Amino acid sequence: MARTFASPRHTALVNFLRKKREEKKGLTQAKVAKRLGRYQSYVTDYERGQKRIDAVELVNIAAAIGFDPIEAIQVIKRVK
After folding, report:
1. What count of other Cβ atoms lies within 10 Å of the Cβ of residue 62?
2. Long-range CB contacts (< 8 A, 24+ apart) of 58-66?
């Protein structure tokens, strides 16, 4: 199996997460980090594609931003 870090699907997920956060006016990286109980650098790292996101993290990030994590799965399923 190919590495997932920096793969087209990983890039699509990173872009999707950044877009979902930016769609929520006023939702900063710092606010998402606080909701996750993490430092802002955690959000910065995954939004820059410098961190792999596992399934549990995806569910937590989705809850912090306010979307259904299935949306993210659907996006990355479409990428080859």
Report:
1. 17
2. 58/13, 60/36, 61/17, 61/32, 61/36, 63/35, 64/32, 64/35, 64/36, 65/17, 65/20, 65/21, 65/24, 65/27, 65/32, 66/24
Q: Count the residues in the chain.
A: 80
13-62 pLDDT per residue, tens:
999 999 999 999 999 999 999 999 999 999 999 999 999 999 999 999 99
pLDDT of residue 6: 76
By the 10 Å C-beta count (0-12 exposed, 13-18 middle, 19+ buried), 78 is classed as: exposed
Architecture of the domain whose range is 8-77: Orthogonal Bundle (1.10)
